[in-house]
Amino acid sequence: MSEDTARRPLIAGNWKMNTSLDSARSLVDGVASAAASHAAVDVIVFPPTAFLQSVATVAAGRIAVGAQNLHDQPKGAFTGEHAVSMLVDVGATYALCGHSERRHVFGESAEWVGDKVAAAQAGGLTPVLCVGETLAQREDGDTMKVVRAQLEAGCRHLDADGVGAIVIAYEPVWAIGTGRTASPAQAQQVHAAIRGWLTDRIGAAAAQRVRIQYGGSVKPANAAELLAQADIDGALVGGASLTVEAFSGILSAAASERAPSA
Ligand code: PGA
Description:
Layout (H helix, E strand, L loop, with lengths): L2 H4 L3 E5 L6 H16 L5 E5 L5 H8 L4 E4 L16 H6 L4 E4 L2 H5 L5 H13 L3 E6 L3 H5 L3 H12 L5 H5 L2 E4 L13 H19 L1 H6 L2 E4 L4 H8 L6 E4 L6 H15 L4
Parallel strand pairs: 1-2, 1-8, 2-3, 3-4, 4-5, 5-6, 6-7, 7-8
This protein binds 2-phosphoglycolic acid.
The site of 2-phosphoglycolic acid has 13 residues, from β8.
């Protein structure tokens, strides 16, 4: 497998707290059908946990299914939470860790996110570690300081092999659900710095294999120019993952980005 093959585009849909059981089942079926025409693109959907098992059953291995959140402990008195083994039991193979809504709405600390990343990986889920700065942090010139601290804490229990096996999603908080996207150059600058952090931590060869997704108001109209950037290996999509039409537009953009030039 060439290094290039190792960084296949990875497009993920984060459905957040949306869909009904019926609409979730038809959405995943539509997404899986669309994904079938883009064999060079890897696809994940993150449905609400209540629908995870049903969505995984409909997906039937055609695309991957992941959990939006998890608890780092294996069991116990944690009302309302889900252990990694439970998510694996119902068909999850990936897990979002430290999505900005978990950090900012539910108060998850960077250290707890690190505990979740380690628990996910130890239990057989591929963690998607989400990082990103707020608008105030960007305006203060602290973007890389914030992102680096989130990466350090998020990977605090992992050895080099562990870090090499996660997915990273860079999502500037000011671009999530706002319709405001980072420009391709702004996004690439942070992605390159994340790749630099990985290089320091696990070496250049392993760093080149880690997939770094961009997230924040990605839609069919802006996906191609974002995915054309050297260190942007995929997208974590919220709003535009809720219709087959919009999400498959992003899959097409990812597929054509990888098509050999004529
Ligand atoms: P958005 O959400 O695409 O609606 O901005 C992205 C995310 O929160 O993962």
